[in-house]
Amino acid sequence: MSTTSAALTRREQILKEAARLFAERGFHGVGVDEIGAAVGISGPGLYRHFAGKDAMLAELLVGISGRLLTGGKRRAAEARSGGDAAEALLDSLIEGHIDFALDDRPLITLHDRELDRLRDSDRKLVRQLQRQYVELWVEVVRDVYPAMVEPEARATVHAVFGLLNSTPHLSRPGPLPGRNAMARLLHRLARGAFAAAASNGAA
Amino acid sequence: MSTTSAALTRREQILKEAARLFAERGFHGVGVDEIGAAVGISGPGLYRHFAGKDAMLAELLVGISGRLLTGGKRRAAEARSGGDAAEALLDSLIEGHIDFALDDRPLITLHDRELDRLRDSDRKLVRQLQRQYVELWVEVVRDVYPAMVEPEARATVHAVFGLLNSTPHLSRPGPLPGRNAMARLLHRLARGAFAAAASNGAA
DNA sequence: CAGCGACGTTAATGACCGTTAACTCGCTCC
DNA sequence: GGAGCGAGTTAACGGTCATTAACGTCGCTG
């Protein structure tokens, strides 16, 4: 019961700070001494908790992909009821992804930025999880819009991920909508994109 | 007349290969020897053409942002005619951005991945160009959808950029639409997202 | 043909960085 | 109360890498 409590374990502290630093300056751009300093210990002390710098990145990326997929599967399972199930499930998937993108920006950033820095086996695992997540969406989308052909649906899902994951890229300047307004806006945009994808443009 | 000819200058070769390598493995992930090898010369020979590795990245990023902005401005200028000008201009901007995203994937990738690796002055310049480009879009979008408030329009434009720039992330596996089909699909998705943003969700 | 400038080459330098070694300290549990 | 262990510490090693130095070689020009 310790790992899920409010107070973070040392390991979790490290992972959280490492995620932030990796997202800010890239995997190769941050040294182990910096990660250590961010949690109040220094440099090689990290090796009591992780096998190496690579292991931290691997755990982060596998964790993200896994959590996304698990959340998606849970929502799909919960949706086995009602008649308009597909519509509701799509909304649920969108909502879940938005929550993730808005609340875990560093992880989202890492997710499609540092995948290539992984050992082959870890990268394969992450990619497999990502693929399953995409296929889950594709099925639901084709359930809602039966007219869509599969490659189109897959490309659309990727594009919508790009749309939903765009928030980390704009943090800095001027006036932006607040968190809830942003969540509603992104949801609307995603639905609009799917609807537009479905209206076949065979012109 | 040399820099725009079909045969690339040595400098341009280097930039092109550097862009590809940076996009594949990150700025810190590729060494100058690799870049040199990619154009048939070795390591330090690059310093006859560039002040350093940083200078290559800077030139790439400034070049991308500049070309995007220039293209956008040109399209805006060309659109000063006709009655439904705003609609057509938005379509033109979307089309231009899609062409760029589909034809210069490595540059698009670099564009929002390695900005933080720049010297302060270069980063400021790039960000300024990016901001101008965004504001150009925002104006056009608000012209087409006068009901949209500015922060909403700006967030939407960012999100649509995320959508249009999503193509580099999916190159590898299964069946995907071909280039032209993809361009049409992305265009439809973008228009759908804008339309959805405009339909105010004050529910 | 002297010479110079553009373009490369290899070798050396110096910094940085991930990882390991060796050691310390404080707590817990027989 | 001391054996053992979890969690840190600093110092050192080894490798990588951007950058510079020193040197060579064309090809053009006067």
Automatic annotation (TrEMBL), chains A, B:
<dbReference type="InterPro" id="IPR036271">
    <property type="entry name" value="Tet_transcr_reg_TetR-rel_C_sf"/>
</dbReference>
<keyword id="KW-0238">DNA-binding</keyword>
<dbReference type="Pfam" id="PF00440">
    <property type="entry name" value="TetR_N"/>
</dbReference>
<dbReference type="InterPro" id="IPR050109">
    <property type="entry name" value="HTH-type_TetR-like_transc_reg"/>
</dbReference>
<protein>
    <submittedName>
        <fullName>TetR/AcrR family transcriptional regulator</fullName>
    </submittedName>
</protein>
<dbReference type="Pfam" id="PF17932">
    <property type="entry name" value="TetR_C_24"/>
</dbReference>
<feature type="domain" description="HTH tetR-type">
    <location>
        <begin position="8"/>
        <end position="68"/>
    </location>
</feature>
<dbReference type="InterPro" id="IPR009057">
    <property type="entry name" value="Homeodomain-like_sf"/>
</dbReference>
<dbReference type="InterPro" id="IPR041490">
    <property type="entry name" value="KstR2_TetR_C"/>
</dbReference>
<feature type="DNA-binding region" description="H-T-H motif">
    <location>
        <begin position="31"/>
        <end position="50"/>
    </location>
</feature>
<dbReference type="InterPro" id="IPR001647">
    <property type="entry name" value="HTH_TetR"/>
</dbReference>
